[in-house]
Design brief:
130 residues, elongated, Globin-like, mainly alpha
Length: 130
């Protein structure tokens, strides 16, 4: 029997946070930022329901505005994507999994551009070839 897509999304969200909370980098950051995990799971599930199923439950603007103040580095994004990809692979049906990963990769690249400092340009000595 095929699992209800909404139940699969909530299972994916819970699995993602279970994996992230075990992570030595993400776990402490999430615990410091999230005061009510059950409420947060609902918000995140609403976002993914909107993104994957087209529902109108997520009414909180863009996710970026809720994350922009976090102090993150490239490795945070790498760990986030690894946990997300594992949770998606374990919990979402194939038709939703591909779309979820496409959306997550796009969001990750967008968040990186807004949240990470620009790389320091390499200075070439005067007269060096380009």
């Amino acid at each position: 029997m095929k699992q209800d897509p909404e139940a699969a999304i909530m299972a994916m969200v819970r699995r993602f946070y279970a994996l992230s909370l075990e992570d030595d980098l993400l776990g402490p950051m999430f615990r410091a930022e999230i005061s009510d995990f059950d409420e947060h799971y609902g918000i995140v599930a609403d976002f993914w329901s909107h993104s994957l199923l087209g529902t109108d439950r997520y009414k909180r603007g863009t996710p970026y505005t809720h994350h922009v103040g976090l102090k993150v580095e490239e490795v945070h994004f790498d760990r986030w994507m690894a946990a997300f990809e594992q949770a998606v692979g374990e919990e979402l049906p194939e038709d939703l999994a591909g779309l979820a990963m496409q959306r997550a990769r796009h969001m990750t690249e967008s968040f990186k551009m807004g949240m990470l400092p620009l790389p320091t340009p390499k200075v070439r000595p005067a007269g060096a070839p380009a």
